[in-house]
Write a structure and sequence with these properties.
heterodimer, A: alpha/beta, 9-stranded mixed sheet, 13 strands, B: alpha/beta, Rossmann fold, 2 domains, 8-stranded mixed sheet, 9 helices, electron transfer activity (chain A), electron transport (chain A), ET-Flavoprotein_bsu_CS (chain A), ETF_b (chain A)
């Protein structure tokens, strides 16, 4: 309890003094911030609501977005390699995001920040603005996000926050090498034609692709330990961020169903069907 | 008061759409100024080029721009340097009837697709041209650059648009394509989007010629400041050389999953692909196991394909894979497991051992024309 009080106090003083920490926190004292999102579990077959207002999310299994797990794992590895001193996990959304942050803490994040934005979905631009505000408070040397959330499939937030901060970006990363001395990150990116390599000056934003790493599981002792770690709560208003809904969801519908197919019994029949029925060969 | 004056100056500046652009002779015809500029739909397409041609995927973005833009005033923006850029510009000028202007940003810093530079370029060009829409392709280039540019312009972009219902009403897939979301852009800035290229294909667009070529103008980069010190550097691109057609535009795609068991066995699939003139794709399991490089992955997080024929060998059909191929015209699945989910989307299914089926197919299929 006392420890928690001390940490909160430290955070408050950090928030006030702002860039006093820039110098002190560079190099080995670098802080890594990771954004994590709570989404419908990747294995769930989603259902569209009958009134077409959205996708059913009540009584559905929710988990941390898989790309966010990879982002967090990478941050933890950077800390374990001695390049960073602290990993801070951030989540924007309703009260239940705290569960996702607990998972992050159980995996090994040092502390967490929950930006309580209420139940309505928040657009990537607003998330980026919130993260920008937090970056200005926390002064991390590196910001790691997943490349996309598997619910909205936007693939925007990392790029947008990099733009707002005018930091360099290494998106769709499959390998990240940090050079503490030179303050650069070498990032291998998964692009359409193959693998592209970039060198970015820190501070930078990195978004993770699937092949960056294999996230660890939280062990039971770490899950217990996570319960005593700090989750700070703030609101967008406290960060002076106005949520801007410039995109309206008009409706959410089911995609057209494919007509039932047939099971053929041999290669000959398959070729025959492709030639004469589908007329494709 | 000062703020109002500044706003007025901004508006005035924006009312002269092409002021900072110097048209290169002989194409000096600048677009006529319309009566009501506020209702004027003018679309900027951010395009990529390769080997002196606008990339096929960018031609899809131009096709999408033509859907938004009934007034045939699509501006294509190309960046790079040298002869390759000039050749691509003349291709862009004649590739589609809706293209009314080609903008060329000639600078060495634009040769490599660095998001930092390109996003600033889009921002720069938008402030001069005041476009109502900015469109690019939802590939690794577009997804990297456009959201960053949108943040600079304080706009929420729309990812992976599959249908344009109205100039501000779009349909896009969410939840790995298991739902289609209709969104309306209600913001004040330009409407920015990446489009799914398989949803905006043009038959023989690349060979289509216009009687009158669109004028080509240089973007005046003398005041372009992409950040005084570059914060990112392009080091290299390692790509797999392949004789196969491009996965994104192939007419036929053959895909292997975990069932192929080894990289060696993928060679068998390549032989079949050769016979069919097909591109080879893979599932995440096959890529993770190291059978094939990552750029062959088809799915929610890999490439989205919609060929005429998609043949899946040893693919179970996870939600994430189906997201990348469910719009294929004809789907064929070959799997030992009769309960594999892939059979629920397949038009033709064959429950059999792929190691027997593939050689038989290679033997019995007619040669490609």
């Amino acid at each position: 309890m006392q420890k928690r009080g001390r940490e909160e106090e430290r955070e408050r003083s950090e928030a006030k003094t702002g860039h006093r920490l820039v110098g002190a926190r560079s190099g080995s004292e670098m802080k890594v911030m990771v954004a994590v999102k709570r989404v419908v579990d990747y294995a769930v077959k989603i259902r569209v609501k009958p009134d077409k207002s959205g996708v059913e999310t009540s009584n559905v299994k929710m988990s941390m977005n898989p790309f966010c797990e990879i982002a967090l794992e990478e941050a933890l590895r950077i800390r374990e390699a001695g390049t960073a001193a602290e990993v801070v996990a951030v989540s924007v959304g309703p009260a239940q995001c705290v569960d996702t942050l607990r998972t992050a803490l159980a995996m090994g994040a040092d502390r967490a920040i929950h930006v309580d934005a209420g139940a309505a979905p928040v657009l990537p631009l607003s998330v980026a603005k919130i993260l920008k505000a937090l970056v200005q408070v926390e002064q991390p040397g590196l910001l790691i996000l997943g490349k996309q959330a598997i619910d909205d499939d936007c693939n925007q937030t990392g790029q947008m926050i990099a733009g707002l901060l005018r930091w360099p970006q290494g998106t769709f990363a499959s390998k990240v090498v940090l050079d503490k001395e030179k303050q650069v990150a070498t990032v291998e990116r998964e692009v359409d034609g193959g693998i592209e390599t970039l060198s970015l000056d820190l501070p930078a934003v990195i978004t993770t692709d699937l092949r960056l790493n294999q996230p660890r599981y939280a062990t039971l002792p770490n899950i217990m330990k996570a319960k005593s770690k700090v989750i700070k709560k703030v609101t967008p208003a406290e960060l002076n961020v106005e949520l801007k809904p410039d995109l309206e969801v008009v409706q959410v519908a089911e995609p057209p169903k494919r007509k039932a197919g047939v099971i053929v019994s041999s290669v000959d029949e398959l070729i025959h069907k492709l030639k004469n029925e589908a007329r494709i060969l | 008061m000062a703020a109002v004056a500044m706003l007025k100056r901004c508006l005035l500046r924006n009312r002269r759409p092409f002021s900072a652009l110097s048209p290169s002779p002989p194409s000096s015809a600048s677009p006529p100024i319309r009566g009501s500029l506020s209702r004027f739909v003018s679309t900027l397409v951010l395009a990529e080029h390769e080997g002196g041609l606008v990339k096929q995927s960018s031609l899809s973005a131009i096709a999408a721009a033509a859907v938004v833009n009934k007034e045939k005033s699509v501006t294509v923006l190309l960046g790079g340097s040298g002869l390759a850029l000039r050749k691509a510009a003349s291709h862009a000028a004649s590739c589609h009837p809706s293209v009314s202007q080609v903008l060329v940003a000639d600078a060495d810093i634009l040769v490599h697709p660095l998001a930092e530079t390109w996003a600033e370029l889009v921002n720069f060009v938008q402030h001069q041209g005041n476009y109502s829409h900015i469109i690019t392709t939802s590939n690794s280039f577009g997804k990297n650059v456009l959201p960053r540019a949108a943040a600079l312009l304080d706009v929420s972009p729309v990812t992976d648009v599959v249908e344009i219902a109205e100039p501000h009403l779009f349909i896009r897939p969410i939840y790995a394509g298991n739902a289609l979301c209709t969104v309306r852009y209600a913001g004040k800035g330009p409407c920015m989007m990446t489009i799914r290229s398989t949803s905006f294909t043009l038959p023989s667009c690349s060979t289509e010629t216009k009687s009158v070529e669109a004028p080509i103008s240089q973007v005046d980069l003398s005041t372009f400041d992409e950040g005084s010190v570059p914060k990112s550097r392009w080091l290299k691109l390692v790509s797999q050389e392949s004789e196969r057609p491009d996965l994104g535009n192939a007419r036929v795609v053959v895909t292997g999953g975990r069932g192929l068991k080894s990289a060696e066995n993928f060679k068998l699939l390549e032989k079949l692909a050769e016979k069919l003139g097909a591109a080879v794709g893979a599932t995440r399991a096959a890529v993770d196991a190291g059978f094939v490089p990552n750029d062959l992955q088809v799915g929610q997080t890999g490439k989205i394909v919609a060929p005429e024929l998609y043949m899946a060998f040893g693919v179970s059909g996870a939600i994430q894979h189906l997201a990348g191929m469910r719009d294929s015209k004809v789907i064929v699945a070959i799997n030992k497991d009769a309960d594999a989910p892939i059979f629920q989307v397949a038009d033709y299914g064959l429950v059999a051992d792929l190691f027997e089926v593939i050689p038989e197919l290679i033997e019995k299929l007619p040669d490609k024309k």
